[in-house]
Amino acid sequence: MFCIGSASHAQNVINADNGSAQATVRRDDAGFQSCGVRAIVQVLQPKYIETYDFSLNLDGAIIKGLLKVGQYQVPGNARQGWEFGKRKTVMPAPKGFWFAEATSDLPLKPEKSVKAEDAGFALGIADFGQTSDTVMAIVEGKPVQFSLRYPDDKFDRIISFKVEMKDEDKQTFFNCMAGLQRRIERTLGQEK
Q1: Residue 147, H or E segment
Q2: For the chain, is the Cβ count within 10 Å smaller at the N or the C terminus?
């Protein structure tokens, strides 16, 4: 049965104005420990730029996804310029967040989230496979949606973005993932 009232609860999807992503890598004595992406996504407003800063990483030591999210606001306007020196972190940290490839019905959500050491940021631990799928969507330049929910928000504000990573960053990421896969295979082989 179709319910007409359900459409009134839907949110608009906001398309980001700018976005960029770069590979992230962490190594230790055993080789690659984590691989992922850091993305900066911007939505221009009349009096400020919303700048979303997040990292999604695949950790081979615990075989989980590690997520970090936060937001800055840069005052100014398109006509007179933006005052990047007056950038402010949105406080407090988001109380919830999710990511999803635009065509996916299941969002990547943290199993557990906490405040990060960086004021205004939150950290989360997530399913390795879902994190991998979302990271690959970003790396491959597919549309990805996300939402950061703050304590006073009544509903999710959905932002959609897509980035074109530099070939060098893609290669760095894929090299890291090859090493991380070998590390996980060695670790799982030792546990048998």
Answers
A1: strand 144-149
A2: N
Nearest residue to 150 (alpha-carbon basis) of 89, 92, 74: 92
Residues 6+ apart with CB under 8 A from 6: none
**CA distances in angstroms from 182 to 60, 94, 127, 192, listed in the order given:** 10, 35, 19, 16
Radius of gyration, alpha carbons of the chain:
18
Report cis status (omega within 30 of 0) of the bond before 107.
Answer: no
CA–CA dist 74, 86 (Å, integer): 6
The DSSP 8-state label assigned to residue 32 in this structure reads E
- Residue 163 phi, psi dihedral angles, 5° rounding: -125, 160
pLDDT, one tens digit per residue, over 114-168 is 999 999 999 999 999 999 999 999 999 999 999 999 999 988 899 999 999 999 9
| 176: enclosing H helix or E strand | helix 167-191
Single pTM value for the model: 0.89
Quote the tokens at residue 67: 């997520």
Distance CA 92, CA 82 (A): 23
